[in-house]
Amino acid sequence: MTTIREYRNLQALSEIWAITATKFADIIALYDPHSKPEVKLTFSQLYEQLKIFAAGLQSLGIVENDKICLIADNSPRWFIADQGSMLAGASNAVRSSQSDPNELLHILQDSDSSILIVEDIKTLEKLYSFSDQFNLRLIILLSNEKSNLEIPVKVLNFTELMKLGKNFDLRSIVKKDTDLATLIYTSGTTGKPKGAMLSHGNILHQIRSLDTIIKPKPGDRILSILPSWHSYERSAEYFLLSQGCTLIYTNIRNFKNDLKKFKPHHMVGVPRLWESLYEVIQKQFREQSVAKEKIIKYCFENSLKFIVCRRIFNCLSLENLKPSFQTRAMAFIKLIALYPIHKLADLLVYRQIRDNLGGSFKTLISGGGSLAKHLDDFYEIIDIPILVGYGLTETSPVANARTHKHNLRGTAGQPIAGTEINIVDPNTRQILSKGKCGLILIRGPQVMQGYYKKIEETNKVKDSQGWFDSGDLGWLTPMNDLVITGRIKDTIVLSNGENIEPQPIEDACLRSVYIDQIMLVGQDQKMLGALIVPNLDMLKSWAEDQNLHLNIPSKDELKNVLADNDLYSQSIQDLYRKELKKEVQNRPGYRSDDLIKTFDFILEPFSIENNMMTQTLKMKRLVIMKHYQVIIDKMFNS
């Protein structure tokens, strides 16, 4: 079994694959069951493909430090292009083929790329109208298509490049760990994307450190659904493959079926993904008979009490970080009393849930946003360990993470190896003591070199001592666990001067079965408001239960009713007002200013397709506010 020690002296990320080809030669490395035909590559085959791809690039004149723009999505060929380009001596700038053409053009130009690798002809056609602005000497398609576009640049497809590579001797390129490996562009929610310069050393630090979070075994199955080009998924894939795991590609359409079919051992995802699984399970519960639903509800209520007592006894309760001997003793007595029903519930209910999710999960990793408390509780109850991490593109990305041994729910965990966290006053930059909330600063080997060609922007976020300004707010527990409370740019300041961090309140509101998505608004207003995407299935069911006979046979007609100012609409308003009040008041640390006094319904869900969510399913708040500004203004002026 490969140990992290074997990677200690490496200088370049691409050096890993020669080691894995020897250690795990016949284990499947990459498996794409949804391509036609499906693709399976063992570690030895993968390394051979990387070498051929790299040799093909070199045969076409690619030299050390050339920049390659890689615009493509998850597939074995993405990985081959990514690591093949680094093996050839180049660095790359990466983005999804689904991104806006203007954004892609900006990245292509800003990165000074001289070679473009694209998913297929369709992706190239998106950029075709900008072809006169290209400064390229080569374009490569990852498909086997032939290009008929009139572009004054040589275009080769994947097969043609690999044919060249097979007849060319690969030159070994020596890299230093300080050399640029990749440019990953920020989401650009507040302006044009900036290229975070990540060195080989930045990313290698992640590979050498993440084994403290997750300890996979060779052959463990990993289901991959997040964008491979994104910092979070990318570092996770590098690490898991370095340990001999099998990476299986899935997508939103096939995700739930693939869970059952491939029975993954580990998976990285974002809160919205775990929320979607939770919602499916809750829906299945609601479809049971009334008697069964009551039994399930009782089981979960008992088990919630059980895990709360277990946390206190193990000194892993955020609400009681230093329990007294008497408190722990009382928690232990309650544990014994609650255990039989919890164990019975596990046999009758929770095991079936685990089986429906594949039945083999050892670890779920959640990142890219805060994990709502009800999700943390739910996965602990059903005995699927979920670990939360924290970081940014600029930190490669992981800075903090919970572990199996120290899984303090409600936190983002302790700093990983070599990483320092400081909490400072946002205005004075004075270091704050443990427990005080302030701006999170990060320092460590994973912090980016800077933003490409943007010295002034770099100096704004990274000081001379190497501290990176995350822009996030949080506090540290006595054990150095990081608790994220919000983001400075997201903070809503009411007209009375109160600062409101929207994320924790939004997470609490999502516990309501009637709310699918929610975004708080209210900057400079007297009170908080919210844009709500309702769960139309649950709303229709509620209407039927209330005997509101208004002839609404479909969800589409229900959408129309929501906008009407009649008795039915008023009943819905009352329902949501009660739901919001209940969930917000049940949140730890509740203040009266947290109450949502006004709201309106948005019937188009926030999504990647309508540009209201990032590729990792985070809301683009400024985009949403701009799009719905008229509704927001009316909300506060009515």
From TrEMBL:
Gene3D superfamilies: N-terminal domain of ligase-like. GO terms for biological process: fatty acid elongation. This is AMP-forming long-chain acyl-CoA synthetase. Transmembrane segments: none annotated. GO terms for molecular function: long-chain fatty acid [acyl-carrier-protein] ligase activity. Residues 20-452 form the AMP-dependent synthetase/ligase domain. InterPro entries: AMP-binding_CS, AMP-dep_synth/lig_dom, ANL_N_sf, Chloroplast_AMP-bd_Enzymes. It comes from Atelocyanobacterium thalassa (isolate ALOHA).
